[in-house]
Amino acid sequence: MTEKRMKRAGFTLIELIVVLAILAVLAGIAVPSMVGWVDRARESQVLLEARNAYISLETLVAEASIEKDVSQIVTEDIDEEVLWEMAGITDDQVILEFQVEEGEITEFRYEKGGRAAVLGDEGLELETIE
């Protein structure tokens, strides 16, 4: 009876190898699908921050139209420090470029971490910088 108890006390080497093989197969399936998650998350972050900056810029243009005719508002009428503060941009690695002509935002570019959000025909579009 003591021999039977000793044999049942733990797992055999074969059982452990089978469990490790199953875990390796599951990891092999899961890891490749997770690799793109980080890139997609960074792209989403850039787009969201760019949208926030763009909305802040639209707000500043609207506020400037209170003081002067909207058709006379140009880029120089926008205080960039206020724009950065409104948009919540604190990262030194961000590049924000914009152009305002006659009260309309004609150009907008937000760059961060090798990605850029630019104003296109259908709104903000993501670009990868090489």
What does this structure look like?
The protein has 130 residues and is an alpha+beta fold. The protein has one domain (36-128). 54% of the residues lie in helices and 22% in strands. The chain has helices at 2-8, 13-67, 80-87; strands spanning 95-101, 104-112, 115-120, 123-128. It has a four-stranded antiparallel β-sheet, covered by helices on one side. A hairpin with a 2-residue loop joins strand 2 and strand 3 (115-120). Helix 2 packs antiparallel against helix 3. The radius of gyration is 28 Å and the shape is rod-shaped.
Sequence-ordered SSE layout with sheet pairings:
Layout: H1 2-8, H2 13-67, H3 80-87, E1 95-101, E2 104-112, E3 115-120, E4 123-128
Antiparallel strand pairs: 1-2, 2-3, 3-4
Helix pairs in contact: 2-3
Short précis:
Helices cover 54% and strands 22% of the residues. By secondary structure, the chain is α+β, with helices and mostly antiparallel strands.
> What's the total number of strands?
4
* Sheet of most strands: 4 strands, antiparallel
Stretches with pLDDT under 50, minimum 5 residues: none
Mean pLDDT: 88
> Helical region count?
3
Largest beta sheet: what is the strand line-up? 1-2-3-4
Helix content: 40-55%
Order of helices and strands: HHHEEEE
Counting structural domains, the number is: 1
Q: From the alpha-carbon coordinates, what is the Rg to the nearest angstrom?
A: 28 Å
Question: How far is the first residue's CA from the last residue's CA?
Answer: 72 Å
> Beta-strand percentage?
15-25%
Which structural class matches the secondary elements?
A: alpha+beta
Shape: rod-shaped
